[in-house]
Specification:
about 10% strand; about 230 residues; alpha/beta; Rossmann fold; five-stranded parallel sheet
Length: about 230
């Protein structure tokens, strides 16, 4: 079986990516990050998803992006609530973590090289998303070019790294339907930026908004219990 590194946050998109990679015959190595995020619930979700979807190995890398701050996910900044991320002109939200995907992909690239794997899966999306610059097709293409210039395996021609983004051009509803067809257990996933102490999603942040929108448009019930009803 070919090997693949799968970035796994514990959310709906990354869980779907892992399930898709497994379906396509990859031996999956799941990679998550304890990067100083304000809650650890997503790491618990990532561990559940990795186990349920049969990852060959699941590693959690500890780095501390709180050193730089600048994001509501790592700093003492309120998470925006009640906004529609699909509305034009809202700009890049304060939940954007500076250079996060670049850092995550760099670690995935390193692990892929030592595994002699040619494929890295990441669940970025450029349709129903919050507008993060490191989720765009141009960014992914640029990182892939860089990766094949920056690794020994790439320079020597032993492997050529591919950054796989199977969800890039799907709506959230299409992602939900795909996940359902792949047997993803939605109860294991976590998407919220600001859960309560019990781990229940807030229902009002950008991530909750997009998740709920996806389930509603897909006609599938989201099994998670939200602390706020949909307005």
């Amino acid at each position: 079986m070919p090997k693949a590194v799968c970035l796994l946050s514990g959310g709906l998109d990354s869980a779907t990516c892992l399930a898709l990679a497994r379906r396509d015959g990859f031996q999956c190595y799941a990679l998550s990050f304890d990067y100083g995020q304000r809650h650890r619930i997503e790491l618990e979700a990532a561990a559940r998803v990795a186990g349920a979807l049969g990852a060959a190995e699941h590693r959690i890398v500890r780095i501390d992006l709180r050193l730089f701050g600048g994001s509501a996910l790592t700093d003492d900044i309120a998470v925006p609530k009640g906004r529609d991320p699909a509305q034009p002109g809202l700009g890049i939200p304060i939940t954007y973590v500076p250079a996060r995907n670049t850092i995550f992909l760099a670690f995935a690239m390193a692990w892929a090289e030592t595994l002699e794997a040619c494929d890295v899966f990441i669940g970025v999306n450029a349709v129903d998303y919050s507008g993060y610059p490191d989720c765009r097709p141009a960014y992914i293409a640029a990182f892939q070019r860089m990766a094949n210039l920056a690794t020994r395996a790439g320079v020597e021609g032993r492997t050529r790294l591919r950054i796989r983004t199977p969800l890039l051009r799907l709506s959230k509803a299409e992602i939900v339907r795909l996940a359902a067809s792949l047997g993803v257990d939605f109860r294991l996933t976590h998407s919220c930026y600001d859960p309560d102490p019990a781990g229940r999603p807030c229902g009002e942040c950008d991530s909750c908004f997009l998740r709920r929108k996806g389930f509603e448009e897909a006609g599938i019930r989201d099994p998670l219990e939200y602390t706020a009803s949909r307005g």
